[in-house]
Amino acid sequence: MDIGNPRYKNQGIHVVCTLFTVRDGEVKVLLVQRSNKPYTDKWMLPSGAVYNDEDCETAMKREMIEKTGISGIYVEQFHTFSNPKRSPLMRMIAVGYIGIVNSENIKIKKKTEKTQNSEWFNLADVPCDLAYDHREILLEAIEIMKKRIMKTPIVRSLLPKYFTLPELQNVYEAILNKKFDRRNFRKKFLQLNLIENTGLMQDIKGHRPANLYKFIGTDEYDVDIF
Amino acid sequence: MDIGNPRYKNQGIHVVCTLFTVRDGEVKVLLVQRSNKPYTDKWMLPSGAVYNDEDCETAMKREMIEKTGISGIYVEQFHTFSNPKRSPLMRMIAVGYIGIVNSENIKIKKKTEKTQNSEWFNLADVPCDLAYDHREILLEAIEIMKKRIMKTPIVRSLLPKYFTLPELQNVYEAILNKKFDRRNFRKKFLQLNLIENTGLMQDIKGHRPANLYKFIGTDEYDVDIF
DNA sequence: GTATAATGTGTATGTAAGACACAAAGGTTC
DNA sequence: GAACCTTTGTGTCTTACATACACATTATAC
Description:
The structure is a homodimer. By secondary structure, the first copy, chain A, is α+β, with helices and mostly antiparallel strands.
């Protein structure tokens, strides 16, 4: 192999993470605000270079810790973006990941070496002029997340360890932006055998408390609190 | 951005194509045999470097023409492989694509600048010691192809312009390695509204000829005959 | 104890999937 | 041309799943 061939010299590999959460019935995505050139002050999806001794998933998790302080997230690769003009600096492709977390107990870093701020944005409030091609990446991630939400364990990490069926239903309704019949939703989800009733009750005032459920099996996707 | 940082210097981007076909009721994959180091004489999936002025899909199609002479194929990205040790030469990630073609009328190049041979292999006959991590890539591609075969237009390119329903069923049976009931298969496929009866009849001797069908809509995935 | 606010439950209907057997078309053979 | 061979083409019944829909229950607040 002709490593120095100018046709494919100076290529770079980035990872980019679209991290979603649901709070107050709204789907939100985590963005960070740049402090450096290019795209100074623009918002972007958390992203960064892959080191030569890492695979992309490892790099993505390291970047998330460095730029946002969030660790232990479950992510899935969804698409690799390779438009040759996507970065003005150099030839850079981006391997895209999707993640979902329960943001209730997560404190995000606001300021880091390369970022001046970080925020959860409602999808409707995301600025149009994200850095690089991150708007395109985000739009594709939203579509794919909707498709996967019914098919992969991605939703586990959105809920606390114990949750009620109405809470679960609210999450699906927020993400898919549609309403479900309560009886049908419960019937369908329960027969999937993914969750079980703990026998515990929700601690709430003002109305009948709901049963608490938990996902059957692993707790491997628990999110560490930073 | 610190372009010269040794932590992410000298990275390379490859594309790799798992091109399937079905012939004589068997699923086959196209492999090429290397002539250069490393992995001299080993078989591999067609693959190559992405140039700095191309996106990955363009590079993949160019590589296929250069290494196999096959053009005009429809492909879908499926996964990016990034194990830091996957290439012994340098840090190299591979963006993986899946394609399917009707190989009946395709003549493949046998010898090129970097390859000494190319062949369609039955899946059971693929050598275990493919170059790089191509065995792993192939195994993942097979799984994903099986899932997508029912959901994307990928199967269009496997059949000639006009085909019979039994031919279509044979293709699905070969790929999924299971038998379908003829009546149920026809009922299901016809109600998808993807194909239409042309009114023409198959030209065959020895038994009742079948109706010829065609895919509704575009011919955009026609494969050029080289 | 009465009102309020949410949870929890069963049935009936429509739609898609899966199992299953025989007639029809064309060619070949005698 | 009659009988036979090979493959295509077709309908119904059963089962599972998706959808539509209304009322009783549990707790708190007043």
